[in-house]
Write a structure and sequence with these properties.
The protein is of the alpha/beta class. It has helices at 38-45, 62-66, 86-91, 104-119, 122-130, 154-165, 187-193, 213-216, 236-245, 284-302; strands spanning 3-6, 27-30, 50-53, 73-76, 95-97, 146-150, 169-173, 183-184, 196-199, 224-227, 250-253, 273-275. The protein has 2 domains: 3-102 and 284-302, Rossmann fold, CATH 3.40.50; 104-275, NAD(P)-binding Rossmann-like Domain (Rossmann fold). The strands form 2 sheets. Strands 8-7-6-9-10-11-12 form a 7-stranded parallel beta sheet, sandwiched between helices. The chain has a 5-stranded parallel beta sheet with strand order 2-1-3-4-5. The longest helix has 19 residues, at 284-302.
């Protein structure tokens, strides 16, 4: 029997799930707190052959992986792999799998909700009504406006469908364009032409910090940017400058460079930003399906027929 370690089930999603029962034939150690240091993570992983990773805040560095001689598989719940040193995993012959596509609909719906909340000033207006005011905000009509996508994987394609559904024109840039989901343009055209720019690339060395001041300067002053991908894709300090100065009109953000946001985050002082806690893919349906697939990836690997393998 393989020792399977779940080092970071906080808040608990795996332990209370229906899928968790499938692991019973194996020895399982499931920790309901996140490791606070690499040494604490290492102490949990040292004897594991298989790890199921729940939280992207748990970092599998070269140093950690090199000190886990028994580790053969990291099964990630989710699509992002930026918390794993993939080069080190490949060198050490540690397989890494993920759960692609499972959360696409939920994240796309959340993206649309952020677009609507920012465009309609929903949070600000709600607050004013609760204060006894009766505002008449001149908000943005989205019908006929241009939605620009940066990245068109499973989530980006679903956002394109929803955008068209509310009458938006969809344009897009991606590393590998395929199909006819949108008008394919350069990334510069996405930024210059769009009324809403929505980010959907995966974080990698090529995409970390890929959007910054020079890109905000291309955007319309009336435009919004939405990020449900990864916080590090946008240079956060330069985004804050663009929002404070009015260089762009607003933002809807589900992801950040540091998560959770610190108590003194400058985002809290900005009225033109809608914030959510990296929760775009968190629905009961998506959670259960993703956990089920993360476990199935373990069993497929144990059978010698790995699937959804990244390295």
């Amino acid at each position: 029997m393989s020792l399977i370690v779940i080092p970071d089930d906080e808040p608990p999603v795996m332990a209370p799930s229906a899928a968790f029962a499938r692991l019973k034939p194996h020895e399982v150690r499931c920790y309901d707190t996140r490791p606070s240091t690499p040494d604490e993570l290492l102490s949990r992983l040292r004897d594991a052959e298989v790890v199921i990773n729940i939280r992207s805040t748990t970092h599998f560095s070269d140093d950690v992986l090199s000190r886990c001689p028994k580790l053969k598989l990291i099964s990630i719940w989710g699509t992002g792999t930026d918390n794993v040193d993939l080069d080190a995993a490949k060198r050490l012959r540690i397989a890494v799998t993920n759960t692609p596509g499972v959360a696409a609909i939920a994240v796309a719906e959340h993206t649309l909700s952020l677009i609507l909340a920012v465009a309609k000033h929903t949070v600000q207006v709600d607050r004013q009504v609760r204060e006894g005011k009766w505002p008449r905000a001149m908000v943005t009509r989205l019908y006929g406006k241009t939605l620009g996508l940066i990245g068109t994987g499973a989530i980006g394609r679903e956002v394109a469908r929803l955008g068209k559904g509310i009458g938006m024109q969809v344009i897009a840039w991606t590393f590998h364009p395929r199909g006819d989901i949108s008008e394919w343009v350069t990334i510069e055209d996405v930024l210059r032409r769009s009324d809403v720019v929505s980010v959907h690339v995966r974080q990698s060395p090529d995409t970390t910090g890929m959007i910054g001041r020079e890109h905000f300067e291309m955007m319309k002053p009336s435009a919004f940017i939405i990020n449900t991908a990864r916080g590090a894709i946008i240079r956060e300090g330069e985004l804050l400058d663009a929002l404070r100065s009015g260089r762009i009109a607003g933002a809807g953000l589900d992801v950040f460079e540091k998560e959770p946001l610190p108590p003194n985050s400058p985002f809290f002082d900005l009225p033109n930003v809608v914030l959510t806690p990296h929760a775009a893919g968190v629905t009961p349906e998506t959670t259960e399906a993703g956990l089920e697939l993360a476990i199935e990836n373990v069993f497929a690997w144990l059978r010698g027929k790995a699937k959804n393998q990244v390295v």
